[in-house]
## 1
Amino acid sequence: MPTAKPTDASIDLEGRTASARRTRGGTKGLRITDVAAQAGVSPITVSRVFNNPASVAPETLERVRQVVQKLGYVPNRLAGGLSSARSRLIAAIVPTIAHSLFSETIQVFSETMSRAGYEVLLALSGYSDTNEESLLDTVLSRRPEGVLLTGVAHTESLRERLRNVGIPVVETWDMTDTPIDMLVGFSHYRIGEAVAERFLARGMKRPALIVASDARALARRAGFRDRLAQAGMTSVAEVIVAPPSSLATGKSALPQLLQGAPDVDAVFCGSDLLAIGALGAARQMGLQVPSQLAVCGFGDLDFATETTPQLTTVRVDGTRIGVSAARFLLDRFNGVHERAFVDVGFSVVERESA
Amino acid sequence: MPTAKPTDASIDLEGRTASARRTRGGTKGLRITDVAAQAGVSPITVSRVFNNPASVAPETLERVRQVVQKLGYVPNRLAGGLSSARSRLIAAIVPTIAHSLFSETIQVFSETMSRAGYEVLLALSGYSDTNEESLLDTVLSRRPEGVLLTGVAHTESLRERLRNVGIPVVETWDMTDTPIDMLVGFSHYRIGEAVAERFLARGMKRPALIVASDARALARRAGFRDRLAQAGMTSVAEVIVAPPSSLATGKSALPQLLQGAPDVDAVFCGSDLLAIGALGAARQMGLQVPSQLAVCGFGDLDFATETTPQLTTVRVDGTRIGVSAARFLLDRFNGVHERAFVDVGFSVVERESA
DNA sequence: CTGAAAGCGCTTACAG
DNA sequence: CTGAAAGCGCTTACAG
């Protein structure tokens, strides 16, 4: 009896290619044909059970699902995506998710997208442009169906390429007249102006800056300085630190600032972290906040204002940004082709000094 | 002249299947064959330029790279992954990245993995087990080469399935004697004990709890209560809140707690957020912290201790967890088959009261 | 409501 | 150092 065939065909993986050269393949190497064979239908029908169940007869549906359950079959989306040109993947390019700022946005963005059947590929760009450019290749190699960007994309070549890909793009957390596609953000420049105005209204004589040198922080700086210049304050003391900003840098930046300009009576910090660090330094130096030194931060951390009532801060609604960005992408997938553009604004929060 | 052929063949997409039924396909629909044709090599050579450049002659390498650059070709990893059974994808299953706790871990994990050529698929599980189970299917459909889990996986069926897939798994942020595979974490139970001990050493008479009802917080609660019971304190007042914990819940939980047990002189809160919220409430109630009421939090936020020196807190090194988890996975990919298991411990931090 | 054929864009395993 | 053939596991576009 040569070439005896296997007897137990219940989980028979015949049909496996003759040379069987590829051993691996995730989740037991189960394929759609295995499910199809067991359920007595064609692979296409199994495919439809996952992707368009309404088009399958209830009984067939049930039978296939039983087999899927029994075998523990999980479709291979690498194959599915390749075949359908639909990866069901959204790329989110973010400088960092540590220390909050963007984490709330990514959180709700991810929740909203996954409810709609998409997953989020997280790409951390740090704060360098060159990095962002090479990151884009990595990201595009997964053929995402949409992209969330943090900030308005910097280099023209990146913007150009993103436009060429032809997938929806949402820029967030910043503002521009010429977005690549869609935008949910706010103006950092106007925030700087608003904080300057607040300081002026409070009668501050010598406002100063502590900022990290990233694009958005520098835009806030520009708005701040321009507004002060309008009021005749053309020389503004400042300490510029390397991103990412941290408690420690804020802490060391304040003494440095005051050393060069001892009469400073208000500081606009590039982030809540820097502000909290500066406040710690102020405490150590015996400075009363805000009476001797007003401190203003920036961010979306309830934390900051809760723990530090004497802090003024600019609050941004990171949650709304994330939800809106997701909605805009999903609308596109549903054929809505408007060019969504939203300024979510900001608010300057100042607690009553207790 | 019927069937005239196109003249300009410089970016000629001939070879495209006759029926051309699939229009889409990302990044201009450029395929490896387009690059190969332009460079005068076979597709396999182009593939090697990306995946194993050392095996290609320097001149060929250069020529292919020029064409890639010129055309703006980005390989399709859906196809590559399907063909090679290597997705270069790592799944990270995390309850949430908002409000920090895990965000630092994910940040450094993602950085480390991407430096090694892997991308991170972020899957947010919330705090429900059932969710985690269905999330696993979604995640496995991408055929990740490794999985990072937050916490020790709950249901046995999930553990079972994960083991069957045969890819490396790292559980983090918790401790168990029977991990699925590898583990980088610490014992929540022992943290509870340690905080109880600290309170006892300080002579607290009536320690209490404010915790969210997630598995890990409840483990801390158990350690806390057991240790107090050893000291003869068998009745411990507590308020249990629904996760995720927040400032607001902490704020409302404290009055509730004190209403039922006015003599409480120490509270162990399930997280820094809860603790900060509770501190806010204490302030409003005119309670001195820590002299009248000691408050202890939990987390990895510099923030908490910096802004709130009167807070005692349990600190965990989220960064180390992320880096170690990444290293363990990468070791596996490099053929190191040890079953890595690390207890990173924790520390109770108490600032000198100023 | 269901299926046979062809193809998605890569890489493997040889062979030279 | 380079390439021709075959296959990875799905889905599309028909047709019935």
## 2
Amino acid sequence: MSFTEYAEKSLREKGYKLTKPRRQVLEAIEKAEGPMSPYDIGKMMEGKGRHLDQVTIYRVINLLCSLNLVHKVFSRGGYVRCDLQEEEGCHRFLVCRGCGHLQEYRDEALCRQESQVAQKLGFQAEHHVTESSGLCKDCQG
Amino acid sequence: MSFTEYAEKSLREKGYKLTKPRRQVLEAIEKAEGPMSPYDIGKMMEGKGRHLDQVTIYRVINLLCSLNLVHKVFSRGGYVRCDLQEEEGCHRFLVCRGCGHLQEYRDEALCRQESQVAQKLGFQAEHHVTESSGLCKDCQG
DNA sequence: AGCCAAATGCAATAGTGTTGCATTACTGCC
DNA sequence: GGCAGTAATGCAACACTATTGCATTTGGCT
């Protein structure tokens, strides 16, 4: 199931309407190579002769983020599609400082250990957001 | 050694000048309870009859961040002083979704494991940025 | 005291994000 | 297939975040 298909299914199931702007934003994010800013998405639309209000784009992105269909990448700015679809747990990113390449992954053991460390500090962790920077396979050596 | 003392020492040692704006920003961040935006710092100054240019504040903050004397808190916006001073490694945050309380910590084992997981994916991690959300001691139960 | 590189102030500009309200358009129902 | 009602969008305005270039100032040195 493609990203867009999965996202549209998720929206339906949760009772959200499947509107034209939402389809368009999903399509834009599906096609994008890396993180897109709402502004980028607007420009892409404009380039195709369509028009989408910036506010609408923000609202769509917020919705998609809240459903974990899209993630914000803090260290680079912008938003990317979630590549792990229905995989539960905390999704993390590896961000290459060489080429900017982004890889999403998930690791249950890491999540568990992180929560344990928090517990020792009296904190009950619910969600972890992690972005690691370094060098990807192609940029090493 | 207080935050400001330590920061001023670090600046000197690395050859950065100890200017009035830098002292003022350090003082503001030292006193602040939680994350401050550059705009907040500007307003705080204005309130005391002093004036600091926004651009200058940004530049000072960027410098302090690059020296790890101050961290940006992505999930809340704004910047906080580093509470771990000279402790090496990746500094992480626990962010309470109840009261907004922020706690900084460090855990070498976690760091190592995170790098190992990345390694298995062919990625050579250098630095990890983590913010966990959940409930602090006071907000549980 | 004076030098000078580093840092600041100012002006302009661009990107990011939010709110309120009137209008439109999905979805479910007949 | 049309209708009703609610959810979502468009528009306008606004506020915050952040960057660049250049003229001017100043901290740290001799």
